[in-house]
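Minimal example, chain plus iron/sulfur cluster.
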Amino acid sequence: MSETTTIVCVVCPVSCAVQVEFEGNGIIRTDHNQCKLALEYVNDELFDPRRTLTTSLAVDGGAKPLVSVKTDHGIPKHRVMEAMQSLSGLHVQAPVHIGDVIVPNLIGTGADLVATRNVAAA
Ligand code: SF4
């Protein structure tokens, strides 16, 4: 038996509220999307939702106390809290450069956690 739900497409600023009818792991039809770009987004949101994790970590010996970091691609949404917990108490040694891999293969997701700002040594 099919189900329906509404997912806001965030692929562009129009933010269409896409009505989706689906069954099992397949989309039957969509409505209220202004273009086809919504189809891949809606499919991912329904069956494999992912999020880019962004946070800050403490820096030891740096000119600034924190460095911002993010995953280099989305990780499964249901594992974001587990990933955040794995970073609890983690300190990074200065200097840090944008793009430095801070944690490779974060909790086995295949995503690397990378620095998004420079922090010079103090
Ligand atoms: S469906 Fe198309 S127009 Fe609407 S938000 Fe998504 S990308 Fe933009």
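The pocket of iron/sulfur cluster is lined by residues 9, 11-12, 14-16, 33-35, 37-38 (CB under 6 Å). Helices lie at 37-47, 80-86.
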